[in-house]
Design goal:
single chain, 112 residues, alpha/beta, Transcription Regulator spoIIAA, 5-stranded mixed beta sheet, 4 helices, 5 strands
Length: 112
């Protein structure tokens, strides 16, 4: 799993690439989010365009990070979700929890 962060407007976009399956990456993402929040940045977008696989551990990572951001008064949004992952979100009803957008630009609009 590869992760790149960039600040856009008043938000942080985290671009994820590869297979979101848990493991050591979960702690890396959790740690990065805690650091971002500590710096006072609470508008966070996960760009999932490059995520090729997602399992239950991957969902756990998303839910954990959503909860962390929300508990700190922020908002975590998902962008560029593939149709397969969108289907999994729908099947598990997680689409009722996560706000998802077709593009990073669309996700940024609500934060402006």
């Amino acid at each position: 799993m590869d992760m790149k962060m960039e600040e856009r407007d008043n938000s942080v976009v985290i671009r994820l690439r590869g297979r979101l399956l848990g493991g050591p990456f979960a702690e890396e993402l959790n740690s990065s989010l805690r650091k971002i929040i500590k710096e006072g940045k609470k508008n966070i977008i996960l760009d999932l365009d490059g995520v090729t696989a997602l399992n239950s551990s991957g969902f756990g990572i998303l839910i954990s990070n959503y909860t962390t951001v929300k508990n700190e008064g922020g908002e975590l949004r998902l962008a560029k979700i593939s149709s397969n992952i969108n289907g999994l979100l729908s099947t598990t009803k997680l689409n009722t929890i996560f706000k998802s957008y077709p593009s990073v630009e669309d996700a940024l609009k609500g934060f402006e």
